[in-house]
Amino acid sequence: MPLEPAAAPCAWMSWSSGKDSTLALQLVCEEGAIEVAGLLSTVNAAADRVSMHAVRRVLLEAQADRLGLPLYVVEIPFPCPNDVYEARMAEALRAARSLGVGRVVFGDLFLEDVRAYREEALRGTGIAPAFPLWGRSTREVAHHVVDAGIRAVLTCVDPRRMPATLVGRAYDARLLAELPDDVDPCGEHGEFHTFVWDAPGFSSPIDVRLGEVVERDGFVFCDVLPGGATPC
């Protein structure tokens, strides 16, 4: 009797709602070596938004719906002490393991300290990390995002690192051409964060419109609202 092929390891995608998470998910799904069974996101409980990206939970839920994947939300307070964050993530990882999850996929590109932190957080849990974008040129990744049809908008900008006027802009070839030379084109140093409203893995685009621009805690945010005749 021929042997059955081994099942792909079951994984959760560490999901920020942005372009890098979306591309990492697309790559592992195309390769087929890992089966993504859910999205794992942290949400600021007070604001009911994705941490740092400031994306409304309803839009996070819309992304999960378009991808056909369950969403697992870790609610954290603001401000969030590190011990509280780690305790709540550990609880989420125990739940993941109980569901048979053996991997967590991350969209990190090159920050060694971030990777080391994630690896240490998973040590001893029975869950291994996967970094499908790791070590790739961020310029190549940025253009891959655009060329792949991943459509995103800048929701948060650090005005100390790049022009605040770029918040709310579409993440496209025109934006990449306008970014200052000292800004990482993927925003890997925290220069900006994005929200993806359409991608090849979505069943349909998410209908969104731009709302108010505000400055808070040293960052400039553009609110993305559900609904609207024309996407961002």
How does this model look, in words?
With 232 residues, this protein is of the alpha/beta class. The protein has a single domain (10-226), classed as Rossmann fold. It is 29% helix and 26% strand. Strands 1, 2, 3, 4, 5 and 6 form a 6-stranded mixed sheet that branches. A 4-stranded antiparallel sheet has the order 8-7-10-9, with helices on one face. Strand 9 (208-216) and strand 10 form a beta hairpin.
Q: Brief description of this entry?
A:
By secondary structure, the protein is of the alpha/beta class. It has helices at about 20-30, 55-65, 80-100, 110-120, 140-145, 175-180; strands at about 10-15, 35-45, 50, 70-75, 105, 130, 150-155, 190-200, 210-215, 220-225.
Compute the gyration radius: what is it? 17 Å
CATH class: Alpha Beta
Global morphology: globular
The tally of structural domains comes to 1
Q: So, the CATH homologous superfamily?
A: HUPs
Record the SSE blueprint:
Layout lengths: L9 E5 L4 H13 L3 E10 L4 E2 L6 H11 L3 E6 L5 H17 L4 E3 L6 H11 L5 E3 L7 H10 L3 E7 L15 H6 L13 E7 L9 E9 L2 E8 L6
Parallel strand pairs: 1-2, 1-5, 2-4, 5-6
Antiparallel strand pairs: 2-3, 7-8, 7-10, 9-10
Primary descriptors:
232 residues, 6 helices, 6-stranded mixed β-sheet
